[in-house]
Amino acid sequence: MKVVAYSIKSFEKEFLAKANQKKHDITLISNPLGPETAFYAEGKDAVVVFTNDNVSAPVVHQLADMGIKYIATRSAGTDHIDKQAAAERGIKLANVPVYSPQAIAEHTVALALSLSRQVVKAEEHSLHFDFRQDELIGFNFHGKTVGLVGLGHIGQATAAIFNGLGCKVIGYDAFLTESLPSIEMVSFAELLMQSDIISLHAPLTTDTHHLINASSLALMKDGVMLLNTSRGGLLNTRDVIHGLNTGKVGYLGIDVYENEKGLFFEDHEHDEVKDTLLMDLMQHPNVLVTPHQAYLTKEALQQIADQTIKNLDLWQLKKCVGNACVCSKNCRVVEAEKAVVKS
Ligand code: NAI
User: Fold this and answer.
1) Residue 338 has pLDDT above 60, yes or no
2) Domain extents for the chain?
3) CA dist 171 → 68, 153, 315, 336 (Å)
């Protein structure tokens, strides 16, 4: 299959090469996909993208006009792809449904512990040979209540670590029906009211957009720790900044930011105009921002590359990609419907 892969970082190349074994003819480019870069897909069968690529309806139509049949994203989240437009043009979509949920869970807990124990500030002070402890008082996680929103692969992996730290873990999931060991299921409002630490692990959808806003913040404990390694759009950043200013939010750890597209994954140090909302957020000493790196472990990178190549392999064999299918109407459902009509 002829493929162009967008937004490729140099560190991804070895993992993709190992997974591909020269089966597919893949052009790796560092540029993100967008209206100006779509032309690189000319003459290809498939496009491989990442979370901050522009896979909106106009770009999907551009790709379709060039004959693209498949789009595979190297991520679990698919909120960056206009699935309806892809369905209209008969383009099949695939993601990486599960890859090392522990990578994201461990980063979430790393943010939590670093915030509580002032690790960044301690390092900054130590580099200046300032070894005082006055500003470094943290809190024990043992005995605290952690509320997890979204109890899928990552939510459950995060629960296991917080359980190990001796926390009481409560959870809310809009769709989960089964009970989970060591997680007490509560309503969203109860979770907001009871938690000392709240961590978000739900996908970005119309339902979860700005799930954390002025009204949900009002229900939280004063000084709550908020963690978001899911998608930036789950937080209303302005409302959270207000919460930081009033002391409602005691700590904020985010790996994702609602306006990160075109910003994260690149060096913007010398930009004349910087994102003022993010600057406002980051000037708070109790805020820790990492650049969408929660997934970034060697294990996860290899699993992402392996699944992406597997998706291309299956498409080449004219087969459905199974669990990785994220077409607006899942191909397996369509096939089942076709079978019913035939019989
Ligand atoms: P998953 O699909 O296994 O779990 C998501 C859970 O959220 C499901 O149980 C679902 O029922 C629940 N959910 C959906 N809508 C909800 C709502 N309105 N309220 C409460 N719960 C809701 O997905 P997984 O693998 O756990 O990933 C979660 C999210 O993490 C992804 O959608 C992605 O946005 C983000 N992510 C971030 C990464 C990073 O590097 N920062 C890397 C990988 C994923």
Assistant:
1) no
2) 2-99+298-342, 101-289
3) 41, 13, 37, 34
156 CA: nearest ligand 1 atom: 26
The distance from CA 163 to its chain's CA centroid, rounded to whole angstroms, is: 23
Tokens of 321: 């990609």
Q: 161 CA distance to ligand 1 centroid (A)?
A: 17
Whether the domain at 2-99+298-342 and the domain at 101-289 fall into the same CATH topology: yes
Nearest CA to ligand 1 atom 17: 174
d(CA 6, CA 259): 20
Residue 331: predicted pLDDT: 67
* Residue 267 near ligand 1, beta carbon < 6 Å: no
> pLDDT tens-digit profile of 249-278?
999 999 999 999 999 999 999 999 999 999
Q: Which architecture characterizes domain 2-99+298-342 according to CATH?
A: 3-Layer(aba) Sandwich (3.40)
Ligand 1 pocket test target in 230, 234, 296 with most atoms within 8 Å of CB: 230
Evaluated on CA atoms 268, 271, 273, 279, the torsion sign reads positive
**Within its chain, how far is the Cα of 333 from the centroid?**
26
Residues 6+ away with beta carbon under 8 Å from 149 = 155, 171, 172, 173, 188, 191, 198, 199, 200, 201, 202, 211
The model's pTM: 0.92
- The Å distance, Cα 155 to ligand 1 centre, comes to 7
pLDDT digits (tens, 9 = 90+) for 7-64: 999 999 999 999 999 999 999 999 999 999 999 999 999 999 999 999 999 999 999 9
Ligand 1: centre distance to CA 339 (Å): 32
- What is the predicted pLDDT for the residue at 329? 76
Residues with active-site annotation: 231, 260
Residue 48 phi/psi, 5-degree rounding, is: -115, 130
CATH of domain 101-289: 3.40.50.720
Which residue CA neighbors atom 4 of ligand 1 most closely? 152
Q: What DSSP assignment string belongs to 149-180?
A: E--SHHHHHHHHHHHHTT-EEEEE-SS--S--
